[in-house]
Amino acid sequence: MATPLDLNQLLCDASDEATEAHARHGNLAFVELLEATGNRVDCIRGAGPYLWDRSGRRILDCMAGYGAIAIGRGHPIVTDALRQCLAGASATWVRWELAPLVGRAAKELAKATDGRARRVFFTNSGTEAMEAAIKYARRATGRHGLLAWEGAFHGLTCGALSLNGSAELREGFGPLLPGAALVPFGDLDALERALARRDIAAMVVEPIQGKTLRALEPVQLREVQRLCARAGTLLVADEVQTGCGRTGSFLACQADGVDPDIVLLSKALSGGAVPVGAMLMTDEVADAVHPSLDRAIIHSSTFHEGQLAMVAVLATLKVIHEDDLVQRSARLGALLRHRCERACAGHPAFGGFLGRGLMAGLQVDVDRVPSLSALPWVGPAIRPLIGQALVNTLLRRHGVLAQVTGAHSPVLKLLPPMVIDERDIDHLAPALEQSIGALQDGSLADALGRALGSMPAHALRRAAQVMSASYLPSVGRPDSLASSD
Question: How far is CA 294 from CA 151, 166, 299, 480, in A?
Fold first, then answer.
């Protein structure tokens, strides 16, 4: 019989060999990326919005697992619910049953979203929810065409990738789904022309784009819905990152007065503990896909509706509701914007504050920083590393973990857990201001120059390539409708 697992010892042993194991058996390019940027974080524990590294230093986590840690790490309500679930030893994935927790999770999720999309299919991730939406939209409309905005990020599986606005992320994986195309962001005339062909099953939108943090004005998003409805096209709201309260309303599209045909959720829905996603759809969409007994299980997944995932969903929704995290995100997001705009206004490199609620970003205008633009080695291949140097400064000097998007005009993106408080804002705002200031005073440029100068040429090229392709997608126009008439 197998012996019990000593997790603490396993973690110690695995930590000692992590670099070698990842380089030999995992993604070597990612190992080299962390070495090149100096942004590797070795944390030994996390709680709430914080991480602690091996030295005992506390780090404010403003990446939050790309938004999945929305209610903080190790939330006691979620942790207790999962322990009860494991201790109960009840049956799961029986399949020929109407699982009680699945029905309750669907009911509570429909109540929280409070829209026409009230029928739920649970998935294991956001990109899987996107794939389900493509299938359901095509079946429900009898059409195959798909549209998304340029600059979009809807996932990295092949169907979702067909709607991805980054040429670099798509490169080498085609041909992708036929009929998928990108519309210039916010170009309602181009959208109307594309919809006029009446072969478009769905228009997929992020209310706030995850990569660019761009958002349409509410009146524009409502016009998108009107155009789609007139053309018989389903409107799919990808709320994988914006949903569950992060932007100051449970769904970002709700604040814009838009009620989509299909809504996609994931990330925050997990409680930061168990992978889970969801596709919510209208009765009309659900009934079109499942019109008869022989089509009852036409779409499924082995691990969807797992009991741990359903418990995580229910516990997370309970926390969001009872702790009023939606309003908290709105209030603290407004405070963060006010403090940052006031603190950074005097720096030429500060290009403005983006986002809504606690999905926020600082636009960085590298061209207005003489200490960087004047350096001979800051060419197109190296430019993506500038944003990472800014992230490194924020982490090393101020104990704030963040990310950067936007290859040519970096956006310092902030997705802190919704459980941060005013004291965290008090720390975050001056940290951002001082990090932007490090661009201006030349200290960041000097540090970046020394780091790049000490790197082997092959590692430098590889790091720049990885940053450009994986983290900093440009807003290209593959399959674009920019010139369609």
Answer: 39, 39, 12, 39
